Structure to design on (517 residues):
């Protein structure tokens, strides 16, 4: 790890001013940043520690019924907040399917939004990576790329975004509250992440020095609370990143789907909202045929970026299963294995 | 650059001046304070051998920058036993053969103490296994570990009621 200067600001304004120096990076819990620094993937000159800033650690219900989550709220604290997990159960399930209990206790929700790809070539400074070193090429293309993107990728980068939390946030129309030198602004999460194109090193719409201060979930998203699930297929039952995941939410009235929400994880460099799948479901009965039709729509534009064509078929099945699980109803208690296809309430085997 | 911090470690308040901002909580405990219970396995947050409690919450001390934890209260495995009496989790690990080589054990024990305080698993082995998935045991003592966690939780909830899961 490179040597750095450590700064502990006492206000957001002070933090933003400190970040004006080139080579500065914001420090949350550091569960991703320190890992990357230890690997020599990133080497900031200055770490600006945000964890002592006041007023960023609250979960609040706003007068309009929406919920505002301070950027420093820990992943575990949010998942176990009773009011939150009741209103947005798929978000809680997504959080609890990510990382380990230790990491969820430390990691902040703002940091979750800002975590970097788990592409092995990005993590290896000896490999070519346009994201880590613009213009150096992409060793994932033609390399070990079973885990890579099938949607929205480019000839410059085929990495995926690793978050589970952000997939559920994307399905439920979360917005991100950002503060910078020019004041505060709000950005829908669907517009927050950038696809790689020719500039894979540019990952979000954040301007230099801007800080995520909060995440907001709209009140109407709670209308899906009775029918929302997160499903995540991974290479082991727990403590692994998604191969493909889906957050599904349905509003069902008199046996008809009035509104559907669907977002995918593990398939692109951003959490992937599928408007086509949502449109395909509206007005249909919640049947297997309807869910399979939506799954086809969700992956209509998918194409393999290497040895990962299997993800397209897998993704369709994950979508159909997630929608069926959402239609069956949000379970009263968090499943023992959150987001797992092996959870006993799916009728699958109880343990692997 | 001011690299001084205050930590309460196993009940004792310590004023610490770091010689380098890169020091993690794990390296501070092991290399500078002589508390070698927490182990350095992967040093990248993947194995759980370095698990400690910070303000009662279990975390990976290898991914925690010490200077950032100014003002925190830390419990390590050295702080669990009371006099000559082992903590119920420590005793349960012995009673159920919850280890073989022992390298991961301090992390497993601290993780189990954190898990019991979180109160989410009840005595469901599936929930316990899921909640312990951040602690790898290369000897494969998982069956004994799960039994130990369930027994210790039961014993501790006899004296202190668990909050509803």
């Amino acid at each position: 790890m490179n040597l750095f200067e450590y700064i502990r600001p006492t206000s957001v304004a002070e933090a933003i001013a400190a970040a004006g120096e080139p080579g500065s990076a914001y420090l949350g819990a550091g569960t991703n940043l320190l890992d990357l620094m230890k690997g020599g993937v990133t080497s900031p000159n200055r770490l600006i520690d945000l964890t002592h800033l006041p007023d960023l650690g609250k979960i609040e219900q706003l007068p309009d019924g929406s919920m505002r989550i301070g950027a420093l709220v820990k992943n575990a604290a949010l998942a176990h907040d009773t009011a939150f997990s009741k209103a947005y159960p798929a978000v809680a399930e997504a959080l609890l399917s990510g990382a380990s209990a230790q990491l969820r206790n430390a990691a902040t929700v703002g940091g979750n939004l800002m975590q970097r790809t788990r592409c092995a070539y990005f993590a290896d400074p000896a490999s070519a990576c346009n994201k880590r070193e613009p213009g150096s090429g992409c060793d994932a293309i033609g390399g070990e790329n079973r885990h890579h993107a099938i949607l929205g990728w480019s000839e410059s980068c085929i990495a995926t975004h690793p978050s589970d939390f952000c997939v559920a946030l994307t399905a439920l129309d979360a917005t991100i509250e950002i503060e910078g030198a020019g004041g505060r602004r709000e950005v829908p999460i669907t517009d927050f992440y950038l696809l790689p194109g020719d500039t894979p090193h540019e990952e979000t719409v954040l301007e230099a020095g801007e800080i995520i201060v909060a995440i907001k979930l709209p009140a109407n998203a709670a209308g899906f609370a009775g029918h929302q699930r997160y499903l995540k297929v991974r290479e082991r039952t727990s403590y692994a990143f998604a191969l493909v995941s889906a957050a599904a939410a349905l509003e069902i009235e008199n046996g008809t789907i009035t509104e559907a929400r669907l977002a995918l994880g593990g398939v692109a460099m951003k959490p992937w909202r599928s408007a086509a799948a949502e449109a395909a479901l509206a007005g249909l009965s919640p049947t297997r045929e309807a869910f399979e039709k939506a799954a086809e729509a969700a992956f209509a534009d998918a194409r393999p970026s290497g040895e990962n064509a299997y993800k397209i078929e897998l993704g369709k099945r994950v979508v159909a299963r997630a929608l069926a699980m959402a239609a069956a109803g949000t379970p009263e208690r968090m499943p023992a294995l959150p987001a797992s296809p092996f959870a006993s309430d799916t009728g699958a085997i109880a343990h692997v | 650059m001011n690299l001084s911090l205050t930590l309460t470690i196993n009940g004792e308040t310590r004023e610490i001046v770091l010689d380098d901002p890169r020091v993690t909580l794990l390296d501070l405990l092991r290399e500078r304070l002589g508390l070698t219970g927490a182990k350095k396995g992967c040093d990248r947050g993947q194995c759980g051998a370095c698990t400690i409690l910070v303000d009662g919450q279990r975390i990976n001390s290898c991914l925690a920058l010490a200077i950032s934890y100014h003002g925190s209260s830390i419990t390590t495995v050295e702080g669990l036993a009371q006099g000559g009496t082992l903590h119920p989790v420590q005793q349960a690990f012995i009673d159920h053969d919850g280890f073989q080589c022992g390298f991961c054990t301090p992390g497993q024990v601290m993780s189990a103490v954190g898990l019991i305080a979180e109160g989410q698993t009840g005595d469901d082995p599936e929930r316990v296994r899921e909640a312990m998935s951040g602690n790898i045991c290369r000897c494969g003592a998982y069956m004994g570990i799960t039994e130990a966690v369930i027994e210790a939780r039961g014993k501790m909830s006899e004296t202190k009621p668990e909050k509803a899961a």
In short: The mean pLDDT of chain B is 95.
